[in-house]
Amino acid sequence: MATINSLTLILCLQTLLFIISISSTHSKIFQPNDERVLQFTCSKTPYPNRCVASLLFAPNSYYADVRGLGQLMIDFAMKLEAKAGLQEIQELQLGGNKPGLDSCAKKYKTILDTDIPKASVAYNKENFNSALIAANDAANQATSCETAFPGKLTDRNKIMKEVSANAAAIILKLKGDNGGVLY
After folding, report:
1. Which stretches make up the Pectinesterase inhibitor domain (predicted)?
2. Fewer CB atoms < 10 Å away: N or C end of the chain?
3. Which residue has the higher pLDDT, 105 or 21?
4. CB 151 within 8 A of CB 183
5. pLDDT of 26 strictly over 50
């Protein structure tokens, strides 16, 4: 009886190994783009290091084509930076009313509630003109915040401006007469 159980177990293991070996040798292997598309796309933006840093940990960025990276730049990177900016502003507001801080809060809320959704919807519809306008508006909002409240949010505003400008650069490349290819 023990011999039959051992033989059955061995036979099952061999069958399992055979099935695994066939499926792994005959199936299509999906490999990430090894950051090549990401690196190349980011090299064509005004702030390439910020672009790579913004997209490196974005969901599926390793598998995204240029169009997908543009979408991630809007929906992931811009949104992440705008939320971080608004959180930093809210923390500063806890320390008391500071001139210009309320203006910055409104600007970052506009980025989150208006500019990013407009850019995303337009981008999805391949309305690159409207997406470009919305991304540029987000960069302008961050610049306006720096003017209204200089100093304490300089780094945050700079990051928001750079991420938005990078999104605009990718959109602009897709909008161009290059057939939607960044190459």
Report:
1. 33-170
2. N
3. 105
4. no
5. no
Higher pLDDT, 52 or 27: 52
H/E segment holding residue 134: helix 128-148
Residue with tokens 């051992």: 6
In the Cβ-directed half-sphere of 126, how many Cα atoms lie within 13 Å? 5
Looking at residue 108, its amino acid is: Y
Distance between CA atoms of residues 166 and 74, nearest Å = 9
Spatial CA neighbour of 142 closest among 177, 111, 183:
111
- 132: which 2 tokens? 């470009």
Q: Which amino acid is at 33?
A: N
With beta carbons less than 8 A apart as the criterion, state whether 118 and 141 touch: no
Q: Given this model, what pLDDT does residue 34 score?
A: 53
CA angle 66, 61, 122 (to 5 degrees): 50
Percentage of residues in the chain having pLDDT higher than 90: 68
